[in-house]
Design goal:
Low-confidence stretches: none
Distance between the termini: 6 Å
Length: about 110
C-alpha cells in the first residue's frame, strides 16, 4: 500500500510542478489554489509513505516521478523540445526509480 501511496504522491508532485506554469507567478487564483492543493497532497502522501518505506528510496522515487512527469507534460503541453539526449536522461531517471524500487528490500 505504501508504494501505491508513494506513486500517487509522485503524481501530485507532477501536478504542482506543472501547475506552477499556469499560475503565472501566482497571479491567477484558480491555478494557484490547484497548485497549492497538489503540493499539500504530495507532501502529505509522501509523509505517509515514509512511515514504512526507506526515506532515501521514497524521496528519490517521489522526485523521480515528479521529474519524469514534468518533462513528459512539458513536452506535451508546452511544446518543449524532444531530443535524444533529453529522452536518454529521462530513461536514466526511470532506470534509477526502478532500481531503487527493486533493491529497497521493503515489500510494504
Amino acid at each position: 500500500m505504501a508504494w501505491l501511496v508513494l506513486f500517487v504522491a509522485g503524481l501530485c508532485e507532477v501536478g504542482w510542478a506543472v501547475g506552477l506554469k499556469y499560475t503565472e507567478g501566482f497571479t491567477r487564483p484558480i491555478p494557484t489554489a490547484f497548485t497549492a492543493a497538489m503540493l499539500a497532497a504530495s507532501m502529505a502522501l509522501l509523509a505517509w509513505a515514509v512511515k514504512t518505506l526507506p526515506l532515501g528510496t521514497a524521496y528519490a522515487i517521489w522526485t523521480g516521478i515528479g521529474a519524469v512527469g514534468a518533462v513528459a507534460l512539458g513536452i506535451v503541453l508546452f511544446k518543449e523540445p524532444v531530443t535524444l539526449p533529453r529522452l536518454f536522461c529521462v530513461g536514466l531517471i526511470v532506470a534509477g526509480i526502478l532500481g531503487l524500487k527493486l533493491t529497497s528490500g521493503s515489500a510494504a
